[in-house]
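MsnO8 family LLM class oxidoreductase (Gracilibacillus thailandensis), 333 aa
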Amino acid sequence: MGKAFSNVKFSILDLAPVLHGHDATLSFQNSADLAQHVEKLGYHRYWLAEHHNMPGIASSATSLVISHIASHTKTIRVGAGGIMLPNHAPLVIAEQFGTLDALYPDRIDLGLGRAPGSDQATAHALRRTLNSSPEDFPSQVEELEAYFAGAARVKAVPGQGANVPLWLLGSSDFSARLAAEKGLPFAFASHFSPDYTLPALRLYRDRFTPSNQLSKPQAMVGVNIIAAETTEKAKWLATSQQQQFLSMIRGKPSQLMPPIDDIDQEWTIYEKASVEKSVNSKSTIVGDKDVVREKLAAFIEETEADEVIINSQIYDHEERKNSYQIVSDLVHV
């Protein structure tokens, strides 16, 4: 079983959860503490995601939170997983991440997505062009690359010459195809889009073209893991994530709620089916160390992931740290 983990890197996806009854101040304190904890455990990188108009996610100003985490850690790579590039002028992103690279050399990653990370009204509030097309994303990536390379007429200062590896993120085949064409590493959001995981990874690997950044495909795959001393306890902790997905399905996103004893009292059979379309055995591992070991090994074998990035939406901060400890003990990161 150990061989399943031996050549795989393990990393953290932190959605900086805003806990019910608390505010973002606690979220950022918890994130810094978690980052220090997983750095000691040997995890490879720590990524934060851009989301807007989400009461339960505090990382909307993603580059600022990245700086906060990097300032509280020493060696772990820190980055965006990801920045939704269509929400921003590429020049501004080049300057922000050039600044981060200057402050924390050789530690910053930049994952790029094309989804708004929000609803249409929020996209409009962000001044995102409502008639924009997904076809604009490749040209935006090229523009960003030009700023980093110093090839644009306008210079990104800081930014020009920055050592910031680019990743493309996706939950379908669009970014898989683009990452393959550009020879960039690819991160797939299996943790909420499990049905498209294998086709997207296959497309990426089959069409990969070597580049200056990468000589062979490099695939990261997301998974939700909620680990505890017993499977019963892990399932109880997992009800916080289930409630969060339920609130989004109902169109009323909420803070991360405490776990509850009977989730079936909270949803209809149709809502349960809708939640389980995203949070199911393909995307989420819930259990004790033996369950996690078996299912994580199977996940890696099926996806052939070079790296696994783990999201753990757990209400209690100490239980969240413990979950990452259990995984670390299993895979010896």
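DSSP finds twelve helices and nine strands in the chain. Residues 3-227+283-331 form a domain with the TIM Barrel fold (CATH 3.20.20.30). ok done for today
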